[in-house]
Amino acid sequence: MRGRFRIFDTHTHVGTALHSGRTYSADQLLRDMDRSGIDRSLVIPFPVVADPREAHDEIGRAVLAHPDRLSGVVCLNPFLPRADFLNEVRRAVEIYGFRAIKLQPQYQPLNPLWRTSDFFFETALEQRLPIICHTGSGIPYSLPALMMDPARRYPDLKIVLAHCGGGLLVGEAIVAADFCPNIYLELSSLMPNHVLEVLHRVPSSRLMIGSDLAENLEVEIGKIEGLAVSDEDKRQILWETGARLLL
Ligand SMILES: [Zn+2]
After folding, report:
1. How, if at all, do strands 23-24 and 15-16 pair?
2. I need a surface site. Which of 91, 99, 201, 223 has the fewest CB within 10 A?
């Protein structure tokens, strides 16, 4: 709780990142959550890890120890042998109750337009997992518009565009959400003026906050708290949308 609002951070990472060298533990996350008044966090493995099973286990143990504060997300290379991919998704859901599957197109070049990628979307549907797709850096596969294709072909699938196109592509993310009612936008890395632009076209019931990294927490929450919009819009972005979709 932070002032009048409950806070659900729908984009955090725990583990050890091979690409950046960053290490961040669940205990550090919980301390940072307490310091910033974050009620819940959705915890995602870093995009490049030594062993995705171990990354899921590290997050899963924290989720089981703190079910009131943390939920987990599956993230693994979609080009693993198909059976290995499916088994690991199912394992993370069955043992740890993970609530979404993350696609990192800047490190996992899955083209949503190719039929060879359909298994990814069908796995998410089968496991009732929303897809969280990184957008922005890492084009072409991280272009927000590419997710419009699976969103229309799988209307029961929910897709969150993480970083909402990352500033440069915010307009494309807005169009994607405008045309596809099952596309949601996570607002990390946008400037406050971008968030207002999004709010003019996409209802707050499809918008949510994320911090991505601990040092962004105060800025990401503060930029929503400080907007000249209704308390209801802030409540949706800070808690309700994420809670409806991901809890
Ligand atoms: Zn991230």
Report:
1. antiparallel
2. 201
Joined together, the tokens standing for residue 39 give 């009620």
Query: How far is 110 from 134, CA to CA, in rounded Å?
Result: 12
Distance 12 CA to ligand 1 centre (A): 6
Peptide bond into 140 cis (omega under 30): yes
Give residue-wise pLDDT tens across range 63-94.
Answer: 999 999 999 999 999 999 999 999 999 999 99
Is the separation of the CB atoms in 144 and 162 below 8 Å? no
The count of C-alpha atoms lying within 13 angstroms of the C-alpha of 161, restricted to the half-sphere facing its C-beta, is 38
pTM of the model: 0.98
Cβ atoms < 10 Å from Cβ of 247? 10
Q: How far is the CA of 72 from the centre of ligand 1 (A)?
A: 13
Ligand 1 centroid, distance to 68 Cα (angstroms): 22
d(CA 163, ligand 1 centre) in Å: 8
Ligand 1 centroid to residue 213 C-alpha, Å = 7
Handedness of CA 47, 155, 92, 32 (dihedral sign): positive
Element of type H or E holding 194: helix 192-201
For residue 180, the CA-to-ligand 1 centroid distance in Å is: 23
Instruction: Catalogue all structural domains in the chain, each as residue range(s) with its CATH number.
Output: 8-246 (3.20.20.140)
